[in-house]
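Hey,
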Amino acid sequence: MFINLFQALRRHGVPVTFDEWLTLQAALGEDLAGGSLTRFYHLARATLVKTEAHFDRFDRAFLDCFSHIGTDAELLGRIEERLGKMPPLELTDEERRLVGALELEEVRKGFLDRLRNQDDMPHVGGNKAVGTHGRSPYGAWGYNPAGVRVGQGEGVHRRAVQIAERRSFRNYRDDVALDVRGMKTALGLIRQAVREGPKESLDVEGTVRATCRNAGELEFVWERARRKRIKLLLLMDAGGTMEPHAELVSRLFSAAKDVVKDLKPYYFHNCVYQDLYTDIRQMRSVPTRKVLEAVPGDYKAILVGDASMAPGELLRPNGAIDFWYENDRPGVEWLSDIRRRFPKAIWLNPDPRAWWDGTPTVGMVRSIFPMFELTLEGLRAGARALMRSG
């Protein structure tokens, strides 16, 4: 049964054995998939794939075999109707071109003016007031090339330059055990031998030299033992466009907690400004300058984020996406400060490399930090770059 899937898996490099295939057939004989393609997908993956590194290959093989199976349009319509959420405003390309983008300072000034002078009545479909489903630079579920998002709670076009609503972020978990083994191995590549502890290891060459200088009378020379250690500053973007990557970054954080003895973890959102967060959910912060002064420059630094933001967030004072947060220095200057302080630094991006060229701010960040994909292969390459860089 499904022998075409077996052949596709072998073509895509998933090492499926005959015994594993028979196990899947036995599971199907017990009706564990229940006639559901989704359940069959999870059943087959759990049975046939031995390592998470092959999940992507499995997905491509599965797509080759079952991509012709579609979703019933009527069923999809009923689901959307049940959700009851009004869809975002849809405009043609010509209509989009007619909606002009304002400069950052105009957006901020205009929004404050609307807050002071706008009435409290609902505004739907307008182009000036704070409302919904319109072309105004202020509001929710509408369209404008750049504006202030209010009350929407989630991104749609990913083009808001600032957000004036309560931001809710989650700290990354440091107790995730799944999938961290490969990350631990990759992080282990940046271990360096350092001497620490009491002088209890015999320095043979030093003892010989000291004995020669002492006219042959034996003189022992002791030194501290060499131990391999990692000293790491880990800065992690949390919230917003990083929400889909929360589980992946949690695995990285878990691996770092287990492998790195001297770990300094902090959070930021989109870009680093004058504050870093020890707990971003509770907004507990510490001045970035204090961190840079307190953490020695021989630490290695790994920054984790998709680097996807409005250009003003990098290049403008008060460009931070949180409307109420004032940053007197552009984010790009803080990133440059981090790079100067920690010559051995890299940036890990959870978005696929194929997306990077389509986001201008990714290119700007790449001009400061060597950037690698947040995959096992990318993490290994980044670790090797940390050992080479200086």
